[in-house]
Amino acid sequence: PQKKNSLEPSVISTADLCDEYPDLVRVLSLPLGDFGGVVSFSGPAVTVKCYEDNSRVKELVATPGQNRVIVVDGGGSMRRALLGDMLGEKAQDNGWAGLVIYGCIRDSLAISKLNLGVKALGTIPVKTDKRGIGDVDLPLSFGDIDINPGDYVYADHDGVIVAGRELTLGS
């Protein structure tokens, strides 16, 4: 199936936002791939810091997403998947807009069919150990930028940008 590009009024082009707000946007400089069924997504950030343990991601996707974006600092690990099909489906069902993962996912074919944005470094078939390790709602720093809880995340075909407040075009 072809990836949906949900360019609804709520989803805005990252390139246009960079042009209109050059002093407000922070550009994530990572080679993230698109894995979800939705490529363009945005919303306030809920941050998670974890390394090869997706316990906190599992807890978050089970809560009401309210069109927010889970930003996961997985330390760039390419050894364990921080998201799989079951957690992706739970995120979709609970109304999360998407996930931006500095790490890997698995079950990429199933995730590609979800009505959910998922950006990650790559895929690996190995799941994480669940040890209850990780922190939620703390400032993150990866991909040459800082990301704070509540920052607005905008993602599309061109990449991911972050701003300290919600941005609109033409205002």
Q: What percentage of amino acids are in beta strands?
A: 25-35%
Largest sheet: 10 strands, mixed
- What class, by secondary structure content? alpha/beta
Average pLDDT metric: 94
Give start-end ranges of low-pLDDT stretches.
1-9
Radius of gyration: 15 Å
What distinguishing features does this structure have?
12 strands; 171 residues; alpha/beta; ten-stranded mixed β-sheet; 4 helices; two-stranded antiparallel ribbon; disordered N terminus
SSE arrangement:
Elements: H1 14-20, E1 26-27, E2 33-34, E3 41-49, H2 55-61, E4 69-73, E5 81-83, H3 85-93, E6 98-105, H4 108-111, E7 117-123, E8 135-136, E9 140-142, E10 145-147, E11 152-156, E12 159-163
Helix pairs in contact: 2-3
Task: Characterise the protein shown here.
Helix 2 packs parallel to helix 3 (85-93). The protein has helices at residues 14-20, 55-61, 85-93, 108-111; strands at residues 26-27, 33-34, 41-49, 69-73, 81-83, 98-105, 117-123, 135-136, 140-142, 145-147, 152-156, 159-163. It contains 4 helices and 12 strands; from the N terminus they run H-E-E-E-H-E-E-H-E-H-E-E-E-E-E-E. 43% of the residues are buried. By secondary structure, it is an alpha/beta fold.
Short note summarizing the structure:
The protein has 171 residues and is α/β, with parallel strands linked by helices.
